[in-house]
Amino acid sequence: DELHETEELADEMAVKQFKKAAEKGDTYGTYALGICYARGIGVKQDYKSAFRYFELAYSKGHVEAGYNLGLMRWLGLPGIKRDVKRAEAWFRDGAGRNHLYSAYQLGRLAKYDSCGEAVDSFKKVIEFMLLGPIQSHATDAFSRREYKPALYRFIQSAFMGSKPAQYNAAFMIERKMGVDGSMVGNESEIAFQLYQQAENQKLSIATMRLADMMYKHGAYEQASEAYRKASLAKLPEAQFNLGVMHMTGKGLAMDYHMAKRNFDLAAQSEDGYIPSAIALWALRFCTPRQELCTLVFDVAYVMRGQMSYKELEIPEKQVFQRLFWEELHRLLPHHKRQSIVANLDMALVGILCFALLIVLAKLRLRRLTANTPQAHPHRD
């Protein structure tokens, strides 16, 4: 009895602390109050109050609160109106934020209406349970630059249907990272197949890479279609590359207005701003036939590889930072680099002279304004 009383006292004290935290707007305190009211911990069980606190926590981004709201709506607990459609919406939101319980419940609900969505939901749970440890080992090995074991683990997960693993394996194989044995000499074909498998599972960045490979091999019209598809997912790199194709006339009609439109879209991304700004400068001040403009544009095209990737397991931006300089070095042979350095120096001198002229013109204008007599109204 004494132990029971002590537990009750501790629960009541905990509820008081949670209330203080909730009053200060603390998300976790608000969520904890919902749990207390739902289970009758330290307070009388009250599903309506629990629902209210879960709603508050969910409005602040607490995914577990959304899951509990979905359960309460689905089950129609006392005082809570049963609403399966609303419950499904909460589970779908949670599944989209990688909450496994939400994904599982969404699969249970969706299997009666949408087999495809049910399969995707159950697959997400299975991938986490079975493939999570494998992909974690792969990512760790990749970070240590142990590419062979990393590639082996990614391929292992890829064959089990993981779309991030399919993408990551293709990414590494395309760049010959950790490749050996029968894959040597067949890197492009294997990478293309893996990218296709990931694209079939609606991984938009895989569509982007397929487009890159098509462009590289001269299939410009097919590449433009793939870039358009990827740009619908608001991938800044795809938007940038569509701008490239409109500017150069490869695969698309040469159209500077459409090129600018796509560069502007890519520039809205934080990572895409700098390469897009460089490309817009080239688009505005020179034509693609000019050597200096071609260099500036090529640099922007290489830099576009550093744009953001949110769907991947691999620390891809680190890889691109290394590959960027390698590709830039390959892009510019020694004799061309020397010629371009001279051109860049001349361009820089020209810009500085132009800026100096503007400053001198402003100073002269101020002096003229200061020396001009002011007209005053005549007073009788």
Produce the secondary structure layout.
Layout: H1 2-23, H2 27-39, H3 47-59, H4 63-75, H5 84-96, H6 100-110, H7 115-143, H8 147-159, H9 163-174, H10 187-200, H11 204-216, H12 220-231, H13 236-248, H14 256-267, H15 273-285, H16 291-303, H17 316-331, H18 334-371
Main traits of this protein?
18 helices, disordered C terminus, mainly alpha, 0% strand, 380 residues, 3 domains, Serine Threonine Protein Phosphatase 5, Tetratricopeptide repeat
Written account of the structure:
The protein has three domains: 2-119, Serine Threonine Protein Phosphatase 5, Tetratricopeptide repeat, CATH 1.25.40; 128-202, Serine Threonine Protein Phosphatase 5, Tetratricopeptide repeat (Alpha Horseshoe); 230-359, no CATH class. With 380 residues, the chain is mostly helical. The chain has helices at 2-23, 27-39, 47-59, 63-75, 84-96, 100-110, 115-143, 147-159, 163-174, 187-200, 204-216, 220-231, 236-248, 256-267, 273-285, 291-303, 316-331, 334-371. The protein is extended and about 85 Å long.
